[in-house]
Amino acid sequence: RGYLNRPELTAERFLPDPFSAQAEARLYKSGDLGRWLADGNIAYVGRNDFQVKIRGFRIELGEIEARLAACEGVRDAIVIAREDQPGDKRLVAYVIAQAGAEEGALSAT
Fold first, then answer.
1. Residues in contact with 71: Cβ distance below 8 Å, sequence separation at least 6, in sequence order
2. Which of 3, 16, 47, 61 is the most buried (most CB within 10 A)?
3. CA end-to-end span of the chain
4. Which residues contact 102 (CB under 8 A, 6 or more apart)?
5. Fold (topology level) of 50-102
């Protein structure tokens, strides 16, 4: 039905359903990308954002990157989800230090 007390987010994510005859029918804009197959099925292609799912939680990588980039001495940061061992997906962050920043360790669990 929508997001509690967030009408702007509800309007952004719940769009009129062009496939329904009901005037109030809505589609949810999930961020997942797919394509129609010749047999009528839909094949999952990926996402249209940088959100990943790890251990059942959806994580927006851009939010973590922004927090890291805001740290003193950090010029830029990027976060990716790596799965070096099947079934063991983990977040990995890479940072670029600002010129003249002291070396140090950045650790997150």
1. 95, 106
2. 61
3. 36
4. 73
5. GMP Synthetase; Chain A, domain 3 (3.30.300)
Residue length of the chain: 109
Q: How far is CA 71 from CA 15, 94, 95, 108, in A?
A: 38, 13, 10, 13
Q: Each residue of 27-85: pLDDT tens digit?
A: 998 888 999 999 999 999 988 888 888 988 889 999 999 999 999 889 999 999 999 99
Report pTM.
0.58
Domain ranges of the chain: 50-102
Single-letter amino acid code for the residue at 93: A
Mind listing the pLDDT tens digit for each residue in 14-24?
A: 999 999 999 88
